[in-house]
Batch of 4 targets.
Target 1
Amino acid sequence: MTLRAQIILITALVIVLFVIFNMVRKRKLELKYALAWLLCDIALIIIVCIPKLLDILAALLGIQSPMNLVFFLGFIFALVFIFILTVSLSRVTAKVRRLAQMEALLRKELMEKEKETDEDTE
């Protein structure tokens, strides 16, 4: 990797890092989701700063090409992030269901009280 490419990549990754921090600060992105992106960004910065690290890591894991390692790690990251989002979606779905049930029970109670007051006034 050329020095110019390293500088461009590091600059882009640092900008992404600041964007993530800013979104967390403005509460546009929850911290639990931001942590995965922050870890990925920091890992990419380390790999760009030390390109031989990818070769060493690929050799340690028995992967022939460092690019195959990049694709493998990207795939693993995507799977982990999809799992995190699925768990989060399941929790939100359960909360919405509970809220809908509570709202229906409150409506029923309100209707029953309205019927009682209508019968009392007659």
Target 2
Amino acid sequence: MRLNEIRLNQFRNLIQVQFQPESGLNILSGANAQGKTNILEAAYFLATTTTFRSGKEANLINHQASRCSLQALYEKEERKLESRIGLDREKGKVFEINSKKAHRNHADRLRVVLFTPDDLYLIKGSPARRREFIDFALGQISRPYAYEISNYQGLLKRRNEMLRKEQGKSRVFAITDELFVKSAAEVALSRIRFVHRLQEAARSIYRRLGGESESLHLRYALSFPVDSDTINLDILREHLLRAGHEKRTLETIRRVSLIGPHLDDLNIYLDDRLARLFASQGQQRNLVVVLKLAEIHAFADISGYYPLFLLDEVLAELDQHRKALLLQELAQADYQSFLTSVETISAVPFQASSYLVRNGTIARKEL
């Protein structure tokens, strides 16, 4: 996937921007509050129809305007596509692909992998962050998974409501529970398979980005025991049912579901030691970058093409050695990347396109 041009009008401080990036590494440099992150946010918004920042969508519109518009011209598997978003303070949002109204999960939408400084909590943060990481990645790759995780969340909500109302012994609960177990097994198996692909990519990337002698392992941690060397849908359903029966009394007391993918985790090990407990801060930062790069390669392995890679101020989180290794990795990659930095990057020994962002405008500059 390649972004050929992005056009922005009244989007935050980007009053009127027309940006034609190059195919490889694009570096957006400049002082703080000039609009660098806004450019990444615009690409992310065009891909997902959501923002990665907090606050209301209306805040995306320049404070002196009543609406904003975003347009992307891009290629996906040798097909030229156009996506547009119009956001109005009163009328709301309209998303189009090739001039036709589209859903946020449209097959031809932009695909992106995003790194922000908040992702540093991916390693040491709560399990929910790691589940969100997997779900976002899988949701971009697989439309069936996007449907299944949404279906699971709906069944979980319904199951919890019945537990709160003390309907755990009703016939309706039994039917809901059967559907819940079936959906839970589908979600868990998809995640397990994805984590396996993620690990295959992450190991070699970790070594390239300055990993020392440690071995990197990723393990999907189920919220229920499975005493089998083989994992498939039937085995997951069987063990989910068994765990559900064992937990039913406790679920009745607590009035909440105590098994299922909403409680699972992604365990990351360095030399068989949990990274969130034993890795240094520098190692944890490096691991987050590795996971994001592994996500890109897993995406391409499954889908047959690469997404865009958006990196917001990643260099500020790495030491000089790892900065150089990451920049070299991005410059030599087969995918298109966009990196923001307050640092001035000059005289680099690789091919990259550099731009200065100042007061909401973009100027090309040579390295």
Target 3
Amino acid sequence: MANGWAQDGAVQEQIDDTVKDAVLAARARLPSGEAAEDCDLCGEDIPEARRRALPGVRTCVACQSQRDAAVRHSAINRRGSKDSQLR
């Protein structure tokens, strides 16, 4: 049930679009191509099992963990829902 000027299902459409955007962004960050034998950041060997599991991987587990911890996500609702504007 929509409120105000929104059509029925508009809230679910926003949720679906947000999830779709997040999935596409995550897929874009996945490595592709030929995997490196040595980490691009620290030079340590990348285990064969990791290279088979993640085609195109360029970093070791330790360096990738540090990179993942440094990722910041925006808390801005780009679709401009009333709820986000009232906060």
Target 4
Amino acid sequence: MKPSNSRIIFVPLGGCLGHLSRNEAIAKEVKKRIPTVKMIFAAGGLTYEAAKKWKLEAVEIPEDASQKLLSQWFDTAGEESKSSASRIFFSLSLSFFLNNILRWLKLWRLKRDFKPDLIIADGEYPMLAFCKAYSIPCVFVTNDLIPTVPNLIGENRAKKIQRALDRAITHLLKWAKLIIVPDIPGTTRIPAELDINFTGPVLKINLEDVPDKKIIRRKMKIKTDDKIILVNVSGTGAGSELIYAAIDAFKKVKLQLPKTRMIIKYWPAISDEEASKHTGSGLELTRFVPDLFEYIVASDVLVTHTGHTTLMEAALAKTPIITTPYRGQIEQLINAKRMEASGRVVVIYPDELTSDKLASSITLLLKNKKKCLEMVSANERYVDGKGASRATDLIIKLLKN
């Protein structure tokens, strides 16, 4: 097989658009080097909808698990009793198992018709078994190599599940032809027997292609002295708590800094009808942002959950970050603590999330230029915009061999 005749299927983890975004970044880089390569994305739910909006060739497959259960887990995990958290956890696990049977069937049909030479799976561990079963080389991409089981279901039970998960995932990862971690060394637990390739953050924009802030603001008709706060929630369906805290916080910030605007990307955390009730007086709620990176560049402060790709895009855009991790997602909590320790973000932990806390954090960054410059400088050391190019080097080498 020649790389010029290659066929690649991308399977990004559903719900979180950061997985789709970095897959798109790799796809663009591969296409630039091998124009004749054929590529298709297989995704479900919000991820599939985003792929179509981004004009990617995509086929729809079932979600990994019930988005309703996933949202319930993230939104209520910190408040539920252990018995209730256990019920949600095991219902979610059953949903994951059943949905992946349906996904396997749909992907089998896609494999039969598309005849891929390579599958690139982003956070999709079941794809390693799928590729092994049909002898298709698999590139596995993840910034969190072995997920941590939350302690909400009881410490002893969590430890047992963690040990089993560690063994299972380590075994699965041995089936990957190539493992790419889009971050720097020291950011994830690595089993000794695995060969890992750290590429740095994989983003759609190179450092030299980052648009000028003033040009983007003129394009968006933002006045020179306006302060823009961008609030971005994840695609899991959780996040309503952050949205309502941000709406109330904006009113308080506006009293101190009248020339302030807030843009909230709200879907799917709340409905369109609910969002329409809050728009006005400098507050804009938008369902979908076609180019989130441009909005991040144009903003003076980004308020977001602790998804890896969004944080790395903000670092590249030199935009100060306030982040609040989900209660039920350990990966986000670890990301937040690690970045906070190196001065790269301001963190509001789930139990601290109030409109007062958020308003004071936003006001601090809007008024304190020194704090913002320190944060931007700390982030510059971690992001150079070349991660997609490094990942593509590895993938093309694999195709040639």
